[in-house]
Structure formats: structure tokens, C-alpha cells
Amino acid sequence: MPFSKFKTPEKYRYQTGFGSYQESEAVEGALPIGQNTPQRPPFGLYTEKISGSAFQAPRPDNQQTWLYRIIPSVVHEPFEPEALQDGAEQATNYNAYDDLVHTPTQVRWDPFDIEEKADWVHSMHLLCAAGDVSTKSGLGYFIFTAGNTMDPTSAFSSADGELLIILQTGVLDIKTELGHLLVRPLEICVIPRGIKYNVSLPEGPVRGYALELHQGVFTLPNLGPLGSFGCANTRDFQIPVAAYEEATEGVEYKIISKFNGRLYEARQGHSPFDIVAWHGTYYPYKYDLGRFMTVGSISYDHPDPSIFTLLASSEGLAELAIFPPRWLVMENTFRPPWYHRNTMAEFMGLIQGEYDARTDGGFRPGGASLHNVMVGHGPDSATHARASEMELLPQKVGEGSMAFVLEANVLLGLSQWAWSKSNKRQLNYNARTWLGLRSHFKKPEKAKVISPFLDQQLKSSGEVQARVNGH
Ligand SMILES: [Fe+2]
């Protein structure tokens, strides 16, 4: 099926497209015609603009949206550091950039535990990161494990970057300033920097992965020789339609802002979700991974995994690639990924099922792995043995499975929480996965040795040792 079968039915309407100009009005006539800032906007609304790029950014990169709302965003009490109810530790889960652990070893985590009491905002844990939030450089990887719906009179936004959300379990009902998004497992969603939203959990606890881009935004990769379509198709991205609520008399709203990795709160007497109409190019969106048109080799070998890229960041910083169920038909080919080292850091997660290149049972939905810059990795020893011997019939892999990789062109540091405090890091990952690989090298007796290496040219190992020792 070229789309996912969801247990939870859709409840909202959407516009479609990617990066295209959109407009939406929740009340007919609320959008001004032909101009952005009429002297008196329709129905007594205020005009507000949100800019996601420099004003003069080239047209394809320009992200601005005009908002027509009941009360402007500026109307709130001053922001103060968030008053924490469940322990001061929560606020520090976001900002741990000064205390990162950098290690060239392979890292893998067991599935992270749900935190029953934590809501969306307070269940976010930084796993690894690079860069600096205040200078808009780098990115942060998070895991969320929320058991609680956000207070309906609260709204959250991050000034620190655009957030890609990869849900693993549960359902997210996201009310944003620009409209509603229902996100179910196998759907991903992107919330731009600064857009306010509230997350409720209609089906109980949720867990998933998130990547915050401090610089740039997500874009659709170019298709090159593939032509005009394939991989993620433009029409399959879904954008909310305008929806608004009016303030209830006497209700106070809490606005939570993540700003330089810290949480701040402000009070206001009107709903932040009061945009009656909007038009522009800066908006949240979602995408069903089941709609991805997976492309691969139909002859021999397999292409670089970039063939599975769904989203790429505008500044070449990060990419999301997914591994959907697919047919493998390549002849005379080692079909799992080859062993490799990469200048990109590779963070992997699993939404459901079993990833076909890692069948040792240690890479589980809700867990993760990180193979950092130039860190060697590849199939585990059992997968290698099986794939080297198997009969190469056409084969469907990944049935019921969805793994993903979030590559980044930075050297990632691990948060103290990811390294030790969460107690989820597998201490035996390397040994369990690869140390079982044995040499199968056997030089045919009659084959002539033409290696230029010293040890092949010297007659005895004693002679080699003497040279090594400098004698
Ligand atoms: Fe890799």
C-alpha cells in the first residue's frame, strides 16, 4: 500500500505541498485581498508577521507568513525562568551543551522509559548535540517520553530551531498557531522555529525522537537522475488549515518559550491560538512515511543510502533517511549495508519491527544508536554470515519495520543523561555486535604475492620484528 494504515483515524483537514505558498482562512473573508496590511484588517483582526528567514532571502528560501489574529503575540506579561513543579532538573534536560561527552566508540541505547508525569515539554531529553544555540549553529538530538497531556491553557515554542518530530509510539494531537496536526506512528512532523503549539496525547503515553536544527531548515532533496518524482513526493506533505479559539473570560494562558536551551514562561489573558487566517511559506507540516517511494538497485550492488533521503537541511548540516519495507533483487551482491566509516555522524532509531541489518535483538523500537564521525560499523556478525551464504532470490525485507537514520555533518557529543544518567546505554554493544567477526582470508597457494608491504617482502617474522624495533 502506498500509504500507512493507521489505527487512529484522521480528524483534521489539510492543505498539501512543500515549501509552496499557502493561504487559509477559518472564517470566510478574514484574509485581506491583494495586500498584507490594510488600514483596518477584516473583522477587527490584528496583522502580525512571522519571519523564518531574512527578508531578502532568495525566493526559494524565503519563509514568511502573515497572520490575522484576535490579539497580537506581544500582549503578555514579561517572561521569567519557568517555575518548576516536578524538580529543578527538568529545565536542564534541554541545555547540556557545555557538558557533552565525545567518544569514538559505537553507542547504542535500549528503549527509553516513558515518564508518566511528564508532558511534551518536560519529557524532552537531549541525547547528543553539536554547535551553539545562541549563534544558530549545529543541532540537537532529543528523545521524548511523555505520559501526560499538556495543560490546555499552555503553549510551547522554541526560539532555538526547527523541530523534526519522529513519533515512535502513541498519538500526538498538536494544536499549532496555524492549525491542527494529528501525528500517528509512521508519521513525522516539522514545527518551525518560534511557532507556538500545544501537544495532547489522546491515546496515552508517547515516545519518539526529535531533531532541532539550530541553523537552516528542512528541505526536499533534489532528485537528480531520478527525474521529476520519487522518494518523498511534494504533494504528500500535509499543512494545517487555519483554526482559532477565542479567549474564555478569566482564563489565564501560560506561554513557555525555549530560549537558548532554557525554559521561560509568561502569562497572558488571551489564547495564543487565535489566528483566524494566514498566508505565507512558514508553517508546520506532517508526512506519512508509508507514502515514501523507495528506489533501489535492479541489477547488482546497492546505491549509497542517500537514495532513501526524505528531508535534507538547507545548509547541508543534516539529513533524514528512512528504511521502509522494500524488495531486494540484486544479483551477486552482499545485500545488507557494507562495512563503513563516514565523515557524517549517523544516529539511528527504530519506529517499529526489526531493522534488517541488525538482527541481534539489541536495536529495538524506542532505542537508538550513534556511530559518530569516522566510527566503523556495519552488519553484526550473524547478519554477515547469513547474507554471505544466502540464496539471492528476490526478497522482501523490512516488512512491518521502519528504521531511520539522522545523519549530521558534525561531530556529536553525548549528554550526561545519554551517556550514563538514563542507564540505557548498552555497555556491551561493540562486543556483542562485531567482535564475533572472524577472518576468512585464505591466500590460494599458487597466487603470487605482489604486496609492497614490508612484512611480505621480508623472509621471517624475526626479521620483521627486528625492523619494527629499529635494529
Ligand atoms: Fe552507517
TrEMBL record:
Organism superkingdom: Eukaryota
Keyword Metal-binding: yes
GO biological process: L-phenylalanine catabolic process; L-tyrosine catabolic process
Ranges where the Homogentisate 1,2-dioxygenase C-terminal domain occurs: 291-441
Cofactor(s) listed in the protein's UniProt record: Fe cation
Pfam families membership: HgmA_C, HgmA_N
A Gene Ontology term for the protein's cellular component: cytoplasm
Keyword Ribosomal protein: no
GO MF term set: homogentisate 1,2-dioxygenase activity; metal ion binding
InterPro entries named in the record: HgmA_C (IPR046451), HgmA_N (IPR046452), Homogentis_dOase (IPR005708), RmlC-like_jellyroll (IPR014710), RmlC_Cupin_sf (IPR011051)
Domain Homogentisate 1,2-dioxygenase N-terminal, first and last residues per copy: 13-289
EC annotation from Swiss-Prot or TrEMBL: 1.13.11.5
Residues of the active site: 302 (proton acceptor)
Keywords: Dioxygenase, Iron, Metal-binding, Oxidoreductase, Phenylalanine catabolism, Tyrosine catabolism
Binding positions for Fe cation per the UniProt entry: 340, 377
Binding site for homogentisate: 346, 355, 377
Pathway: Amino-acid degradation; L-phenylalanine degradation; acetoacetate and fumarate from L-phenylalanine: step 4/6
Family in the record: Belongs to the homogentisate dioxygenase family.
Name the record gives this protein: homogentisate 1,2-dioxygenase
Native source species: Cladophialophora psammophila CBS 110553
